[in-house]
Amino acid sequence: MSFAPDPQVRCRDFAIGCIGAGMIMAECHLAAYAEAGFNVAAIASRTRSKAQAVADRWNIATVHDTPEQLIADPAVEIVDIAYPPDLQPALIRKALAAPNVKAVLAQKPLALSLDEAKALRDEAAAAGKILSVNQNMRYDQSMRVLKQIIDAGDIGEIVFAQIDMHAIPHWQGFLEGYDRLTLSNMSVHHLDALRFLFGDPEEITSLTRPDPRTGFAHTDGIVVSTLRFPSGAVAVSLEDVWSGPRAEGYEDDQHIGWRVEGTEGVAKGTIGWPTGAPSTLSYASQKATAGKWVTPQWQTMWFPHAFIGVMEQLQHAVKTGTPPALSVADNVRTMALVEAAYQSIEERRTVRLSEINID
């Protein structure tokens, strides 16, 4: 079978204005956009000097003093936001109101609450503009190829799946002011990927304990979630943000692995973060590989190459007038799953997704 680990770039037509100059923008968004040949017209951040340094690095012609000035720039057609989630909704609303802006790409989590996310979804629809959310793990190469294998029926009906993370995130400073940590900012990758692969689950059961290394107060540190899908398939999402002690001479074994078992075969692999290597996939199928293990190869990585697909799907949606692959309406459903997980932790029970109002 021929696989497509990376999407085709179908559109480079629109001028992008980038808000934010931190690691995710400087090392991921802009690296990907440069490789894809996207047109980044302007940048702004909370600190002009930081925005200027990033602009100099990536040859961005215009640096604005404030995000609001960038949004009002008539040359900017797509606003790409990499900002703290408590500040992001206000910028999204300004962008939706700007006549020059055709679409907005927001970071996850879209907002600090499900109600705010639903409000942004509805306001974007009322404005007649596209709001997309950067769920970039859907563009990880192993996730894309896995989805192609599943859709082809090569591993049959899904029985069990897991995403197994033992890695230490770099928690951004602004997270210290929130009462939610891992589920909103790390598990959201995995829960969204499970939705991408298998559709919406019926129920989720989550538990947590504090991470001994994280130096600020948090309600959710290490998180384990079990999901059940309408088909009967079950999945486990594990975010072990402790992953063991760290000291001089201690051998680091941070990793993220995944496994999907079906009635006709098994697929398994790794995610390249935090090792800085390409993600991997191997699969054995009674139907497609005569039961032998096959390992497709690619050279691209989750970071930064997945961000090409994220921006490309938005530009394509603007050009064609079709819904984006990463729509805000779909992201609200991921936000609802995160909300159900928090409710499960708080109430110490399984929560059905039908209990969470997304209207």
Give an overview in words.
This protein starts with 14 loop residues before the first strand and ends in a 7-residue tail after the last strand. Strand 13 and strand 14 form a beta hairpin. By secondary structure, the protein is an alpha/beta fold. The model has no long low-confidence stretch (mean pLDDT 97). Helix content is 33%, strand content 22%. The chain folds into 2 domains: 15-136 and 306-326, NAD(P)-binding Rossmann-like Domain (Rossmann fold), CATH 3.40.50.720; 141-301 and 336-352, Dihydrodipicolinate Reductase, domain 2 (2-Layer Sandwich), CATH 3.30.360.10. The longest helix has 20 residues, at 328-347. The chain has a 9-stranded mixed beta sheet with strand order 14-13-12-11-7-10-9-8-15. The protein is globular, with a radius of gyration of 20 Å. It has 9 helices and 15 strands. Helix 4 (88-97) runs parallel beside helix 5, helix 5 (114-127) runs antiparallel to helix 9 (328-347) and helix 7 packs across helix 9 (328-347).
Return the structural class: alpha/beta
Going across the major beta sheet, what is the strand order?
14-13-12-11-7-10-9-8-15
End-to-end C-alpha gap: 40 Å
Figure out the total of helices.
9
The name CATH uses for the topology of the largest domain is: Dihydrodipicolinate Reductase, domain 2
Largest sheet features: 9 strands, mixed
List the keywords.
alpha/beta; Rossmann fold; Dihydrodipicolinate Reductase, domain 2; 2 domains; 9-stranded mixed β-sheet; 15 strands
Give the secondary structure arrangement, pairings included:
Blueprint lengths: L14 E5 L3 H14 L2 E6 L3 H11 L3 E2 L3 H6 L5 E4 L6 H10 L5 E4 L7 H14 L2 E4 L7 H11 L6 E9 L15 H17 L4 E7 L12 E7 L5 E7 L14 E8 L2 E7 L8 E6 L7 E2 L11 H15 L7 H20 L3 E2 L7
Parallel strand pairs: 1-2, 1-4, 2-3, 4-5, 5-6, 7-10
Antiparallel strand pairs: 7-11, 8-9, 8-15, 9-10, 11-12, 12-13, 13-14
Helix pairs in contact: 1-8, 4-5, 5-9, 7-9
